[in-house]
Amino acid sequence: xxxxxxxxxxxxxxxxxxxxxxxxxxxxxxxxxxxxxxxxxxxxxxxxxxxxxxxxxxxxxxxxxxxxxxxxxxxxxxxxxxxxxxxxxxxxxxxxxxxxxxxxxxxxxxxxxxxxxxxxxxxxxxxxxxxxxxxxxxxxxxxxxxxxxxxxxxxxxxxxxxxxxxxxxxxxxxxxxxxxxxxxxxxxxxxxxxxxxxxxxxxxxxxxx
Length: 209
Known about the structure:
Layout: E1 2-9, E2 12-19, H1 26-52, H2 65-82, H3 90-96, H4 119-126, H5 131-137, H6 140-146, H7 150-153, H8 156-168, H9 173-187, H10 197-205
Antiparallel strand pairs: 1-2
Helix pairs in contact: 1-2, 2-4, 6-9
C-alpha cells in the first residue's frame, strides 16, 4: 500500500507518498489519499472522545496517559480492521501516525522510530487487553518500558507471561526493569518459535532477576 507521509523541511511541512513498492501509479496515489482522509476522520473522533472525557487538555496535556493511549489504541485497531496495512509497510504506518494529531502527539519525528519505541504501536498492543487488565499491569510508563524489549515483544507467549507476572506482583517501571531485562537477556539469542509451550515455560521459570 501507499501512505501519504507528513514531512518537515526548510519550507515547512509537506507531504510525500511512500511505500515498499518501487513504482507508484495514479491509482496508488488516489488510494493513499482516501486512506489518509479516512484516518484523519478517525483521529478527529479520537480527539473528540478524549476532550469529552476531559482526560486531555486542549494544549495536549494528558491527565491520565494510560487511559488516553488505551483509547487511541482501541480506535486505531478498529481502523486497521477496516483498512489493512501490509506487513511490509507496518513500520511506515506506525511512524505515519506521528504529526497527524497535535492533540495526541505533538511534532513529527525527524527520523524513523522503531516499533519497540513507537507510542502508537505500544497503544495498539495494550488495547488488545481489557482496560481492567491493562490497569492492573501498571501505568503508561511501565507499558512503554515493557515493549522496548524485543525478546518480549517478538513472542506473544513471552509477552503474556510477563503480563501475568506483573499483575501477580505489581511494580513501578523502575522496579519492573530487572525482570524485563532478565527475560530479554534470557531469550536474546534464542528463536522461541522453535520451542513448544512446555519448553518455553521451563526456560521462563529459569529467569532470575
